[in-house]
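WP5 quarterly update. Target: 3-oxoacyl-[acyl-carrier-protein] reductase MabA. Source organism: Hoyosella subflava. Length: 265 aa.
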Amino acid sequence: MASTDNPLDLSGHTVLVTGAGQGVGKRVAELAAARGAAIVVNDFDADRAAAVVDELRASGTTAAPAAADVGDFEQFGTAIDTAVAEIGPIDILVNNAGNRGAEAPAHAPRPFWEQDPSDWKPFFHVNLDGAMNATRHVLPYMIAGNYGRVITVISDAARVGEINGMESYSAAKAGAAGFTRSIARLSGRHGITANSVALGATRTPAIADAIADENFAKKVLSGYIIRRFGDPEDAANMILFLASGAAGWVTGQTIPVNGGYSLAL
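Structure tokens (predicted):
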């Protein structure tokens, strides 16, 4: 368990971060390792997962890869079983893997009323199915240990409702938030908390091209009280607070990390 002298310490815990090959997920893995945790690195890209594991091990961290598609129940489960056999049971889960549509047909200019299930299923596969799959595979370890933390990364889109091809993304992220609240109610008696973190526009590879457009960036930032884009570390700091002993009486909540965007709505 974490040190009683520092409730933010994660020594003795094992953290699974999905989508940890880059962006917010990678920064969460790095900072959790710096706080003493062992890390299971999931990414659908095996090379990215291996590279992060190598970096963590080079710093003295116990780490294992779990390269798999988080939305594929069997494939992901096999990868997690292998990682657990290597470094031990997982008691902190960060559901970070996401899909904003860059690789999905749903991110298309045609209106929603002209789409079909092949357009929106890719969003649900990662953003909702992925969070459910990961939680399903890890929850038994947490229940057995009578301790756990589940943190699901969602988006302001879950509350605002994005359009122009992003309707399904908004729905999937809202679903993930609702699922996380259900897990909080289901598992609290086992010493497990479950919360979501709703991110505003954060500098990650997923939006790098979009925010490089000066006009687009100016328009987005006009809605933020703190006039800058978030950094992966902004997100990681909140995620790891919720993962720590300091947040033991916080559960079933959605915490915005968005530069004050919530107040502008």
